[in-house]
Design a protein that fits this description.
By secondary structure, the chain is α/β, with parallel strands linked by helices. The chain folds into two domains: 5-41 and 289-394, Alpha-Beta Complex (Aspartate Aminotransferase, domain 1); 54-286, Type I PLP-dependent aspartate aminotransferase-like (Major domain) (Aspartate Aminotransferase, domain 2), CATH 3.40.640. 45% of the residues lie in helices and 16% in strands. It has 15 helices and 13 strands. It has helices at residues 5-14, 54-67, 75-79, 82-95, 106-117, 132-141, 153-162, 186-196, 218-222, 250-259, 261-264, 271-286, 289-307, 327-339, 369-394, and strands at 31-34, 37-41, 99-103, 123-127, 144-148, 169-174, 199-203, 230-234, 244-248, 319-325, 342-343, 346-347, 357-362. The strands form three sheets. Strands 3-9-8-7-6-4-5 form a seven-stranded mixed β-sheet, with helices on both faces. 47% of the residues are buried.
């Protein structure tokens, strides 16, 4: 018999963990419309404003005219079209590796990659804060899974030293951690993988397009050799479309085409999305000013929020999480900001660990100075209101 779902929902409600969908009635821009009202959006991963870029939209429109809406089949049947092939070439050049392979979503990319690389005879060492799709992929592989402390190379080293020497090993991390905004210590992790004959897999969903001089991601930011690890990423953040990819050796692409269930048994992404992503990648390379505006906006907002006394994580990216600990307080503050015209959802367990609920702001290159000043003013009022509320409660 199924559980009493209504009772389960009520239980979530009492713990301030119930989530509900809000319908956005406008494109993904710095301002969005919800229920007929305009808000400054601080909740999008559209870091470079490419999701609604005229050139990206035009590429999709022209591809629909030429290729239709759907691919009509899985990639190995008849679903591989010219836009898919072009996108994979563009991604490989952008990431400076031999080859790339695309998937329908970032989540399924991880589900398709990790179980294809390792099985029950292997060992996976994953950062504690890895995305849910990575952890799910690790479990799906049936390999032994051990978690190392977040960004703790010493703990990782101790686990590597304890393993059986002949056991195939993956070390799995994010490049930019999606909920904390901090960066993995890639040079240290890569050095340990070389020393212990392990393979490093990095999920660079939030680094691609954002980090590095040319936007190639966290690998470029740290100056490590892209040939020395396997990169996974998404097309849905800075690239502004949808889907995921794996970038690495040509042999890896060939192997995944033949073994990855998430690739083999699903219909190809719409060709228009592939064409739009190729255009977005070219814009990322041709318009470095977008990343400069993003960094300027990020630094200005980070300084203002810390200046107001908010507790932020050790973020080094456009992800600016304000830790409020209690899910109830996170929901209340989010609602107060909503009433002030600023959209910042509350992030609560199980998305983040217990006692670390937060307001997670994400900045874009397209936010104006005036918009960011309005956001800061709203946070100042919320800070004052909740400080008074806390003082009253304690008194």
């Amino acid at each position: 018999m199924l559980r009493d779902l209504k009772q389960e929902i009520k239980h979530l409600e009492t713990r301030h963990l119930r989530r509900q969908l809000r319908i956005v009635e406008s494109p993904s821009d710095p301002t969005i419309t919800i229920e007929g009202r305009r808000f400054i959006s601080m909740a999008s991963n559209n870091y470079l404003g490419l999701a609604n870029h005229p050139g990206v939209k035009q590429a999709a429109i022209e591809a629909i005219e030429q290729w239709g809406v759907g691919a009509g089949a899985a990639r190995l049947i008849s679903g591989t079209m010219t836009p898919h092939h072009q996108l994979e070439q563009d991604l490989a050049r952008f990431k400076q590796v031999e080859a790339a392979l695309t998937f329908g979503t970032g989540y399924t990319t991880n589900l398709g990659l990790i179980p294809a690389l390792i099985d029950r005879d292997g060992l996976i060492l994953a950062d504690r804060y890895c995305h849910a799709s990575l952890i799910e992929a690790c479990r799906l592989s049936k390999a032994r899974l051990r978690v190392f402390h977040h960004n703790d190379a010493e703990h990782l080293e101790s686990l590597l030293k304890k393993r059986e020497k002949v056991r195939p090993t993956l070390v799995v991390t994010e490049g930019v951690f999606s909920m904390d905004g901090d960066l993995a210590p890639l040079p240290d992790l890569l050095a340990l993988c070389r020393q212990h004959d392990a393979t490093l897999v990095i999920d660079d969903a939030h680094g691609t397009g954002v980090m590095g001089t040319n936007g190639r991601g966290t690998v470029e930011h740290f100056g490590v050799n892209p040939q020395d690890l396997i990169q996974m990423g998404t097309l849905s953040k800075a690239i502004g479309t949808s889907g995921g990819y794996v970038a690495g050796p040509a042999s890896l692409k060939e192997y995944l085409i033949n073994t990855s269930k998430a690739f083999i048994y699903t219909t190809a992404q719409p060709p228009a999305i592939a064409a739009a992503a190729s255009t977005a990648i070219r814009i990322i390379q041709d318009e470095p000013a977008r990343r400069e505006r993003l960094r300027t906006n990020r630094n200005a907002l980070h300084a203002a929020l810390t200046g107001l006394g908010f507790q932020l994580t050790d973020t080094q990216s456009p992800i600016l999480p304000i830790i409020v600990k209690s899910p109830e307080r996170a929901v209340e503050m989010s609602q107060a900001l909503y009433e002030a015209g600023v959209y910042v959802p509350a992030i609560r367990p199980p998305t983040v660990p217990k006692h670390s609920s937060r307001l997670r702001l994400t900045v874009s290159s397209e936010h104006s100075q005036e918009q960011l000043e309005t956001v800061v003013a709203a946070f100042r009022k919320v800070r004052e209101a909740f400080s008074m509320k806390s003082t009253s409660a304690s008194g």
